[in-house]
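Work through this protein:
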Amino acid sequence: MARTRFPADRGLTTRMVVVMFLLGLLYVSAMAGLIAAGVDWFLVVLIAAGALVAQWYFSDKIALAAMGAHEVTPEEAPELHAMIDRLCALADMPKPRVAVSDMQLPNAFATGRNPRNAVVCVTTGLLRRLDRAELEGVLAHELSHIAHRDVAVMTVASFLGVLAGLIARFGMYSGLGRSRDNTAVVFAVVWLASIVVYVISFLLTRALSRYREFAADRAGAYLTGQPSALASALVKISSDVERIPTRDLRRSAPAQAFFFAPAAVGNSLATLLSTHPSTEKRLERLAQVSAELGRPML
């Protein structure tokens, strides 16, 4: 974790290490299997390495483009910049770039490969709906993601799972072209490998994503000293999602895992596999923080 005044979270650090190790092992195993099956190893490694490097260096630009967001200067958004300046000074961390997305969906996210190459993005819907204390709570939450470096881990973890599945499918078609005598066997093995790779990576990244939201809520609440403001923002955002146009929800889908609050509602199965813990559980954790700080939840 970066050396900031955000409280460290050993549980988050341990989970990030374990998830990255398991996904890396899964990723390497998938490539090794394809190479053993006769796929050109140089081509596999070249595609995998090139795609990973591109995602690592351009993940912030990809996320902003998906949200239709643009960076804003202090002159264009003085109040927003002033809040982030104050929070970064409190946290003793580098200031990230600031962006705004013109969407009704009230939300925010942070992305970037490290604290010095990060960006915090908020939507115009969020700016309109929250008061100053609530907005500060959300921004502190997003800055803690950057300080904890879980933004970078989630970027790589999400990408590795998808890429491993793509490589498995690539191997299937390559194997079909070269192994005409055992086409059915190659097809079955690679198809099953593709499913296993995707399911395991999906579950690992979802589990990490849910825990990191708890960690960011706690860290953000401790930084501002106002867990009730963060809780109020969470309630407002969660209740407003159901009234957001479908077009905005569809447009925001690529950034779902990085949002402050999920841009969708669903049943218990959806909750189990979601990128975020339930609002009720997050409010319970914030109530605990409030009790620790000796400040009642309003």
